[in-house]
């Protein structure tokens, strides 16, 4: 349940699909916990829900779990045709938001937020709100550029660790998203999945994950 002990402050975190979403939510969660105030997480998509691909569905599932963990209300706006700034402003006024956490996410609509024009527009329209712009690390941007689009995959426990497979069976230990390295004929890349309430990323080499606890984060 959301902690509403202090109503003087209210945090809104804006996220879009990608690995930076969890980081932004937890950053907002820390601020809200420190201020003992309400926390909202907003995601916007121009597509209707029934047109999502597996990657979007995966991230939304992860965010819902994290939102519950950190005591946030996740606001999902789909089939949304309004400009991003308009949506942010409307939610800000509806929820009496005083601080907004924004992220620079590679290859997404939120990337526009890092450009001065939209920042200036938010500052102009929401002069009473503090903006926190969280940048993505260079390593993450480079890493994303070397992988193909993610696909649903599973890890099966074997003697030497875990083996990657793409057909679901009762032997599967973990379900997640596999990102294959560009330019390789073998299944080398990164497997992302939920372990408890944490998003874990492990390297895949020739269909195998040797150490499931050795995250590359």
From TrEMBL:
Pfam families: Usp (PF00582). The keyword Transcription regulation does not apply. GO terms for cellular component: plasma membrane. It comes from the Bacteria. InterPro entries: Histidine_kinase_KdpD (IPR052023), Rossmann-like_a/b/a_fold (IPR014729), UspA (IPR006016). GO terms for molecular function: phosphorelay sensor kinase activity. Residues 11-126 form the UspA domain. Keywords: Kinase, Transferase. PANTHER family: SENSOR PROTEIN KDPD. This is Histidine kinase.
